[in-house]
Write a structure and sequence with these properties.
The protein has five helices and six strands, in the order βαββαβαβαβα. The chain is of the alpha/beta class and about 110 residues long. Strands 1-2-3-4 form a four-stranded mixed beta sheet. Strands 5-6 form a two-stranded parallel ribbon. It has one domain: Creatine Amidinohydrolase, Chain A, domain 1 (3-Layer(aba) Sandwich), CATH 3.40.350. Helix 3 runs parallel beside helix 4. This is Creatinase N-terminal domain-containing protein. InterPro entries: Creatin/AminoP/Spt16_N, Creatinase_N. It comes from bioreactor metagenome.
């Protein structure tokens, strides 16, 4: 699943969700950001593998290289440009909208959140 919504990235990682993207696969969690934010995201190790990009479209190359069977996307928060790049990189049937999934999970509170 590709997380692009700031609030959801913060919920999953515990750090501000601006200027980064989270990719969660069956076996691994990745935080994709550019070199300017390495220090800020370094607190996540070893929970997330940090992937450093120079330009946004390296994210698409990274996703393509993982050879995922499918990818869930937060379609309500995905730019048309990124969506088009995903469609170019992956067959369209592999791109699955997951609108509201993380928001639904965030509704469930543990003792610390109450």
């Amino acid at each position: 699943m590709l997380l692009t919504k700031e609030a959801d990235i913060h919920y999953v990682t515990g750090i501000p969700g601006d200027d980064c993207t989270v990719l969660i696969t069956e076996n691994k969690r990745y935080l994709v950001t550019d070199f300017r934010y390495i220090e800020a995201v370094s607190v996540l190790k070893p929970d997330f593998e940090i992937v450093v990009t120079k330009q946004g479209f390296e994210l698409i190359d990274f996703i393509r290289d993982l050879k995922l069977d499918n990818i869930g996307v937060q379609d309500e928060n995905l730019t048309l440009c990124v969506y088009r790049e995903l469609c170019t990189a992956l067959p369209q049937e592999k791109i699955i909208p997951v609108t509201g999934l993380i928001e639904t999970i965030r509704l469930i509170k543990d003792k610390e959140e109450i």
